[in-house]
């Protein structure tokens, strides 16, 4: 899979190494234009093609849903639309991207290679998303665990990797990247007590779009680290939120399909729906982040949130295709 920053870019292909092979992006293209975390706050300069999604998010906000969103052009960094993009929102599993960055950066260490075997323990046990909890094998390589996190947001694999690299190291890496409103706060827990972090992760749409743009350009730590992270994320099977509008196969979208390439990470928990991603099409590329927090007591509220996210996706598709 190749992610490009759009026309007018330069760069070359990159293979990340042996055991990852086909599970990572085969190349990254760097844009001549640097994207920065700053940008417009409201939709005053929203292109007409984004009016539908902007209106949908506005309706949700009027009905009590907390909304934060941002989309930027992948090549130029131009803000396409934004809604409270500076606000740090609960993002559920999206913080696992920060863990994958730390894991990928450490793979250069001979003592922490892709084939290093890690064993799950009772301390790591957690339910919900992921498949490792349902498998018989108790030990897996680091790269395999990262692939599980990228593909199914595997909670058990996440906890084992956090135990291996240390949550403090993930936090230090996050600070080094200049992120102040985005963080992985804790292990994955079935129940959160009064002494636990209230959320697994938080993030601002402004910082998340910057992060994914920088990953696509090979600028997070280095090109090799960025390519590994993009590769793991390209396995993601959750296209139920913004990406539901793209018409891609949830189980196989690592190659161009109708001229579309997409990498994303979602976060889902009670009262939270969040997604950050990159969509590249024949005409343009865009980086986007949408997070919503809402009262999940009524199914109709949740369905309205999902429809709003899909509306943003439809506008993104129109922009790139």
Automatic annotation (TrEMBL):
Stretches the record annotates as Disordered: 1-24
The species this protein was found in: Cryobacterium levicorallinum
Protein name in the entry: Beta-lactamase class A
Beta-lactamase class A catalytic domain span: 71-292
Lineage, broadest ranks: Bacteria, Bacillati, Actinomycetota, Actinomycetes, Micrococcales
């Amino acid at each position: 899979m190749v992610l490009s920053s759009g026309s007018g870019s330069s760069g070359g292909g990159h293979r990340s190494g042996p055991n990852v092979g086909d599970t990572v992006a085969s190349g990254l293209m760097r844009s001549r234009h640097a994207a920065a975390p700053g940008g417009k706050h409201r939709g005053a300069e929203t292109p007409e093609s984004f009016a539908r999604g902007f209106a949908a998010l506005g309706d949700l906000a009027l009905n009590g849903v907390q909304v934060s969103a941002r989309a930027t052009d992948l090549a130029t960094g131009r803000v396409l639309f934004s809604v409270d993009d500076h606000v740090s929102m609960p993002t559920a599993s999206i913080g696992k991207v920060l863990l994958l960055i730390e894991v990928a950066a450490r793979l250069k260490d001979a003592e922490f290679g892709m084939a290093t075997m890690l064993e799950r323990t009772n301390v790591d046990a957690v339910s919900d998303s992921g498949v490792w909890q349902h498998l018989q094998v108790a030990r897996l390589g680091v790269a395999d665990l990262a692939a599980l996190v990228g593909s199914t947001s595997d909670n058990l694999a996440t906890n084992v990797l956090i135990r291996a690299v240390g949550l403090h190291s993930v936090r230090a890496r996050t600070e080094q990247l200049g992120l102040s409103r985005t963080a992985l706060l804790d292990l994955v827990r079935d129940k959160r007590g009064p002494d636990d972090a209230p959320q697994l992760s938080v993030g601002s749409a402004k910082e998340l779009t910057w992060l994914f743009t920088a990953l696509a350009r090979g600028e997070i730590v280095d090109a090799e680290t960025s390519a590994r992270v993009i590769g793991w994320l390209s396995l993601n099977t959750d296209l139920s939120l913004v990406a539901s509008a793209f018409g891609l196969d949830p189980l196989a979208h690592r190659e161009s399909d109708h001229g579309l390439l997409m990498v994303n990470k979602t976060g889902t928990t009670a009262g939270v729906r969040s997604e950050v991603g990159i969509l590249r099409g024949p005409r343009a590329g865009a980086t986007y982040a949408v997070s919503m927090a809402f009262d999940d007591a009524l199914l109709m509220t949740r369905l309205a949130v999902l429809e709003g996210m899909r509306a943003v996706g439809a506008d993104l598709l129109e922009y790139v295709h």
